[in-house]
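Two proteins follow. First one:
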Amino acid sequence: MNVEAFLADARAEIDRVAPRAAYELLQAGGLLVDIRPHANRLAEGEVPGSLVIERLVLEWRLDPQGAHRVPQVQPDTRVVVMCNEGYASSLAARDLKRIGLRHATDLIGGFRGWVGAGLPSRPGGSPAIT
């Protein structure tokens, strides 16, 4: 299997959301989780109100039954995963669904799609939850 087929398989398991829909989910109490590395957040900015959890520890911090999860996460929490352009986030969202976050999805176009849609951003560099 090549990476394109791997990505297509992951996306078949999630209902991806466009930037405006992700913004509405965030406003309604959902979580937008930024998995981008610090260098990307520093260079391009961040979304106000997003939760910064780099990919390395994502499943441990968002496992709804896990001992190391962040307190905002329950099995029914709406979580939108965001990367730079919407590729790595698809794989991450699929993995989150598999560990019990049934409403996990990802942001179509990633952070760059968010900014391109004219949605709020701010200078980046916030520390990630470790």
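Second one, unrelated to the first:
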Amino acid sequence: MKYVNAQQVLPEKLLQEVQRYVQGETLYVPRTGQNKKRWGTVSGGKQLLEQRNEAIRTSFAKGARVEQLAADYHLAVTTIRKIVYSSN
């Protein structure tokens, strides 16, 4: 997430109004619905998780034990079970 100085982008009156509520803090301004992107689409995080989960499912199908997969991927046993028994 990129930091932008409000003083550089907001009109003075709007900046003063915002300062009535928040001063010297980081403020997140969400995108409008039309510009909103789904989680992980920009960073590639979602695709990486899907690839990891597919690798876990493949290993499990080849006989890897849930406990070993949890240790290998540094995840909880319950998380591995959710991944291997999900329909994805």
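SUMMARY FIELD: Residues 57 and 84 are 5 Å apart (CA to CA). The longest helix spans residues 45-61.
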